[in-house]
Amino acid sequence: MTDRNGIVFVVSGPAGSGKGTVVEKLRQIYDDVGVSVSATTRQPRPGEVHGKSYYYISREEFESLIANGQVLEYTQYNGNYYGTLKSEAERILESGKDMILEIEVDGGSQVKKLLGDNCINIMLIAPDAVELERRLRGRGTETEDAIIARLNRSKEELKELVNYDYLVINETGKSDECADRLLTIIKAEHMKAHRADKYIKTNYPE
Amino acid sequence: MTDRNGIVFVVSGPAGSGKGTVVEKLRQIYDDVGVSVSATTRQPRPGEVHGKSYYYISREEFESLIANGQVLEYTQYNGNYYGTLKSEAERILESGKDMILEIEVDGGSQVKKLLGDNCINIMLIAPDAVELERRLRGRGTETEDAIIARLNRSKEELKELVNYDYLVINETGKSDECADRLLTIIKAEHMKAHRADKYIKTNYPE
């Protein structure tokens, strides 16, 4: 479709929200998404192609892009930056395709700031505080202190909800239903009146 | 559910949008809606009960309520007013139930003004200008002048889209799919983060 613009859907959530599994399932049921090429400061390996495998840029350039609000989200790994450029997102959105980004809770507010209406951020949470604690304890590999710390951090992150567009409950054992809920949001957002300019111009010419 | 508030969904659309059929189908697939009792200035008939059949109020009171922004939408028939009171909508929304109102395009902007975030208005349209004209001509009962007038009015009403939240395409012969789209919007709106206060307070107590 060329009579629509794409949207960046950020899916985030505190520890215990189960966002990893849900986003994986969402990608299985929704594929109208563009392939986003990441930028990195690491050297290309043999056979890798600039603009296909990655955009290879210098450390100075990457940091300058961050400073200028041109990097939607990034991480450092083994001394190198990896991230998603705003320009790459814009290229995909203009082609009519969406993007799905699974990132940390504070990152979700940041992407929204950089992209405005072109970004919809969604927070996943466990159904309630009791279930959240059960999930965090359920891993069974952490000390009591570590569990309490994660629980407190999760509750803290929930306060970021004011900077989010949607809150989706991920009921235990129902990640398929939860992915369906995300798809419901994606479909609804594409029906927003303020996104209809292209459609109206194409189909109701003056 | 008591951990959510209801929402008033206004469904509107110019002549030729097919809103009547679609709203009927929506009511068949979505019944989490409250029963709204209308207000009227006509006299009660034998067996009718105030607050059940209608709220029976005087003409002066009705007009005073209109003037004070307490009537969401109204019409006059046989010299009497019939309308939906804002207080009635608020009663239903607080119980967690939604309302679906099928009204004229300019009424949709008005209800939104009176209810703010508690109202989501949705405009239905034919897929394009050619199909719209075909539908309006299809009735086969009107003069050319009347058809042109309706066509122009429909295009004029489309400009009201700036005051609407959603635009939904009602493809010809696909009113079931269109009703599904409305249901998608209803479900998504209930996941809006700014509506989650009750849920968070109930399920994540401080």
Provide structural commentary:
Two copies of one chain form a homodimer. Chain A is an alpha/beta fold and 206 residues long. Helix content of chain A is 42%, strand content 18%. Chain A has helices spanning 19-29, 59-67, 86-94, 105-115, 129-138, 144-158, 175-189, 197-203; strands spanning 8-12, 39-40, 55-56, 71-77, 80-85, 99-102, 119-125, 166-169. In chain A, the strands form two sheets. Chain A has a four-stranded parallel sheet with strand order 6-1-7-8, sandwiched between helices. In chain A, strands 3-2-5-4 form a four-stranded mixed sheet. In chain A, helix 5 crosses helix 6 (144-158). The longest helix of chain A has 15 residues, at 144-158. Chain A is globular, with a radius of gyration of 19 Å. Chain A starts with 7 loop residues before the first strand and ends with a helix. Chain A binds chain B through residues 123, 125, 127-129, 155, 158, 161-162, 164-169, 181, 184-185, 187-189, 191-193, 196, 199-200, 203-205, and chain B through 123, 125, 127-129, 155, 158, 161-162, 164-169, 181, 184-185, 187-189, 191-193, 196, 199-200, 203-205.
